[in-house]
């Protein structure tokens, strides 16, 4: 039973690869039949569990309610999408986001729920570091607006450079990942090489200091909650 449940959960999650827009597209009839089959298996598994569980206990378990709601939402979305497709009306399968619910909430996924619960318990404790990082990002963005906003600089595409505050926040946020480095600083660097110091300082503070601190806080808190969950077992 456990192997069959895992197989159909994997099959249901894998449908995203074959549904439009898809990496390997299959006809809608094929993917919809496979999804209905998976949902029937999930419903049968839930029904089987309800037969061997007291009714009061079964309906008090939020995991069972989540699975039932996910099945109903998936069937409703599949039916609506199929009808709209018959009339050549373009739409999206919004119920795809509920598919991981099956992976988390079945009784066989106890270890996944533990990991998920540890992540959930860790999130409130890292908000302070996140707010500090966002404060630093906003302050650097404000400095960038004051430094470059009045220079009438342009990007390589001929667009205004660092004129809009929200666009500056987004560009510097991407710079934290170094994905747009050094392109984002080239208009300022071409105007004066001294402006490179601003971007160097930004990368040192936000990429190397804040991201390392953020990772350390996430790791330590996750390990702490995992130890509590497993009764003090060493999780290193």
What does the secondary structure layout of this molecule look like, with pairings?
Blueprint: H1 2-14, H2 28-51, H3 55-60, H4 62-86, H5 100-105, H6 110-122, H7 127-148, H8 165-176, H9 186-191, H10 196-229
Q: How does this structure look, described?
A:
This protein has 236 residues and is mainly α. The protein folds into 2 domains: 108 residues; 114 residues, Helix Hairpins, CATH 1.10.287.70. 68% of the residues lie in helices and 0% in strands. The protein is built from 10 helices and no strands. Helix 1 packs antiparallel against helix 2. It is flat and about 75 Å long. The chain starts with a helix and ends in a 7-residue tail after the last helix. GO terms for molecular function: monoatomic ion channel activity.
